[in-house]
Amino acid sequence: MGKPTDHSAAEKVGVRVGRFIRSAHPDLSDLDRALAEEWLPDELLVLFMSQSEADQRHAVSVARLLLRSGYASRDLVAAALLHDVGKRGANFTPWHRTAIVLLEAAAPALLRRLARWERNRLLAPFAVHRKHAAEGAVLALRAGSSERTAALIREHHQSDGEPDEELQMLRWADDRA
Ligand SMILES: [Fe+2]
Ligand SMILES: [Fe+2]
User: Fold this and answer.
1) Which of 26, 76, 123, 142 meets the CB 3.0–4.6 Å disulfide criterion with 54?
2) What is the rounded distance in angstroms from the CA atom of residue 49 to the CA atom of residue 122?
3) Distance 116 CA to ligand 2 centre (A)
4) Which ligand is closest to the CA of 58, given by its number?
5) 110 membership: H or E segment, kind and range
6) How big, in percent rounded to 5, are the helix, strand and coil portions of the chain?
7) Cα angle 65-148-150, degrees, rounded to a multiple of 5
């Protein structure tokens, strides 16, 4: 299967603003829930459902894009459903979500600086965002995921390292869902 082309920064902002707007109506459909139930064993399903409804819906969209593209390994689909689970429990206001989208595209160094203020209630979500991939991998392993699923979650925002087709596809789907 040919590797899809990368989104430009402007396209990424557009996709994420759309995700933000949809998050105002985050109801998970029966079909979404059925997909998660089909691909996750019980303990990972509990972890999936501990996410906000908006993040559950985003995760199902990522999984569905992968499946439609012919990527259907159980480890990858489980990673898609849990890739942002490290964000659970954080209080991301619309202001934070908008700021993260814009700063990732326009000022990533400033976003990294803001992420140092873990103890500041207003800025803490930036720190959660910075750490969510590593944190999510730990949560998934603790709930019984495979090492491969945990590795995909841990690296879903890293663009360096060894070429890994499934990881590239996870990033591709995450940028679009
Ligand atoms: Fe993420
Ligand atoms: Fe994501």
Assistant:
1) 26
2) 26
3) 21
4) 2
5) helix 108-114
6) 65, 0, 35
7) 85
For residue 42, the CA-to-ligand 1 centroid distance in Å is: 23
How far away, in angstroms, is 112 Cα from ligand 1 center?
A: 15
The number of the ligand nearest the C-alpha atom of 61 reads 2
State the ligand closest to the CA atom of 154.
1
CA of 119 to the centre of ligand 1 (A): 21
Q: What distance in angstroms lies between residue 1's CA and the mean position of ligand 2's atoms?
A: 23
Q: How far is the CA of 175 from the centre of ligand 1 (A)?
A: 9
Mean pLDDT of the chain, nearest integer: 89
Q: How many other CB atoms are found less than 10 A from the CB of residue 12?
A: 16
Q: What is the pLDDT of residue 93?
A: 87
CA-based angle 175:102:94, to the nearest 5? 90
Helix or strand holding residue 44 (H, E): helix 42-49
* pLDDT of 22 strictly over 70: no
- The model's pTM: 0.83
pLDDT digits (tens, 9 = 90+) for 109-131: 999 999 999 889 899 999 999 99
